[in-house]
Here is the input.
Amino acid sequence: MSKENSVRIDEIKETPLRRTLLEESKWKANLSTCMTCGKCASICPLHGYSDMDPRKAVRLVLMGEEQTLIDHDFIFQCTGCEKCSWVCPMDVKIGNMITQARYLRPMDKKPGKAQLTCELHRDKGNNMQISVEDWVDTAEWMMEELQSEIPEFEIPFDKQGAEFFATINSKLPQYHPDEMQDVYKVFYAANASWTLPTEWWEGTNYCMFSGDLASWENNLRKQVERVEQLGCKAIAYTECGHGYFATVAGYDKFGIKPKFDLIHVVNLYAKWIREGRFKLDKSKNTQRVTLHDPCNASRKSLMNDYPDIMDDARFVLDHVCEDWVEMWPNRENNYCCSGGGGALISGFAKARTYYGKVKVDQIDRTEAELVCTPCVNCYDGIGDLAKDYKRKWRSIHLWKLLANAIVL
Amino acid sequence: MKELTSTVLVVGAGISGLTTALSLADMGAEVTLIDRRDHPGGNAAEWACMATTECAKCSACQVEDTIRKVSGHSRIHLFLRAEAGKLEGQKGAFRVQLKPTDSSSASPRDLKEETTLACQSIVLATGFEPFDATEKSLLGYKMHPEVLTIPDVDEALKENRLESVIPTDCENPKIAFVQCVGSRDHKIGHNYCSQFCCKASIRLARRLKHLRPDADLTIYYIDLQLMGKEFRDFYANARKDINFMQGVPAEILHGEEPGMVRVYGTDSETGESVPADYHRMVLAVGISPQPGNEALAAVFGVQLNEHGFFTRSANGASTDREGIFLAGAATGPTDIVGSRLQAQSVAKQIAMSLDGFTNNAKVA
Here is the structure.
């Protein structure tokens, strides 16, 4: 290239994405330290699906071509697993860059239903626009089912002063209501002081991933207000990595300082087992199980210094399953379920199938029948992969394995 | 306690220490040379000759050659399994305590008892340690039997057991090298190039191709660091029978077939993802500072840099403490040729700083 045609990187005009990534310390992405080693591309499950990969994305932004990235489907096919950031030897925060690119996509140009769920969450208190009446009805219906096993069980709705405020992902009442019995059974058997709120119980928050910052903050503040009204000591955050991460990260981002703790239920299960609160019978779970580490409650929590569930999920499995095996790679090195970061509802089904090929191979090698997914989102992500690739294994929540093993 | 006198103490009998000692002794100095290991030659003593039909100028033979010259030199006193314990005095009049690392040893070259050495100058030539590839757990070293390091292959070649590292039960074994393992990695504090590994991998790949002409060889690299006026031609020749892939994999997965591993690369022309299965992956592990540097820096009252290598003073060859000099990979990454050049230069600077070696004290 002749000197006249060359452009100095620092002379490229300051564009919105570059400015955010260079200036806001929280989102500092260290883009200029990229030496194009290709490690990010080598582990990105989307690499090869389209003409975009993480390394190329970094180049585009560095060269002042960020609009190409902002307009590219890649940023919403990306599941935000952030394994690229994790393996980057120069600490380039590629995940931050993709998140910021999503934020710069205009609201009406965001694909699929991710943004719709944010608005429903904001306006109706949950992603599935379940009314208080329907919520109570479903919760009580499942209570009645459980009463055949535990006759004295009653749901502690909106119980003032309860220790734990339980969140529930709206997919449960909507699609898997039976599993609410498992959640009840765990709280009951632990003899926990808990409450099931009738409002702002939603255990997820897609706004972080869609890039609707106002709704993200609104939903967090509404829930905090409700927890504080009830005087609970902690939110027992349900098995949803996104919800958990968007909550801890959101408290930081928006400077929310709640008067209570936030604890992931998997950490609670482990605590309760250590305290000897359950009588457990492993022989109730004889099928081979493997563990899928949800990115948000594992790698991403670790990278951001939030409590993660990696050790405790394993501790619980040791106590509730006869035969569980690791997949490889695992823990903070794990591959995403293919449905993270809003990809599950962004409408790119073919991209997700492509994305999942390493995940499927990981699971196949364990010869497991069940894939424990302590995350409602991963549960569906892995479930879809089993369908797409015609596999016999299926996903299972940790609360199900725990509830099975509990002897009353 | 035993007492000895020398002109110079050289700490570390790798290629840098050996060359420094030899240069000094050839100029007339009395040299005490110590090493913690049970053999001289350091890391490079384990490296195999890389010659194909012609010499590849890997310099591995220079190590054996230098050991031979040092061993037969009347003015060099080599003590193995020895380390420095305490230092007193200053330039021109140092007193160093030398301690055996293993007092039960039987070898005649080992230091037998605690000894005080009087000397005028000191050279720290403690070398390096190969990066521990298990630190990069995603590469699966020690987990996938198919994943090796350059030192593993070198050792096998040196011991004439190539079949233990390259499968003999298949035609066209596929072998790939992964560059920059433990180098250019800010996350682990190694934001430096180890300088010798690109050349080492290309030489080793050519040697393997020479020994197994049916092998299919690939090198995954970031950007090739090929210093030296002759190496460009060597590289141009290497391109004829080695595939070069820009971009290094962060992770090594199980391959489709048992006995193989998989990595994903990128096609430089099309940008497409290129999955590839290999029988063997060879990790080009870089240079880590000696773990003992910290203790040694405390003993000698000298500084380490942010990476854990010894810090050079402004003039280049010495530490900030007068009379204590540095050579080779103790100061940071270098190769055999670079180490030897540094060593010869240090020897001359010491000779100048002491006004020559005419007033040599003989070993007591």
Notes: The first helix of chain A runs from residue 16 to 23. Chain A is about 45% helix and 5% strand.
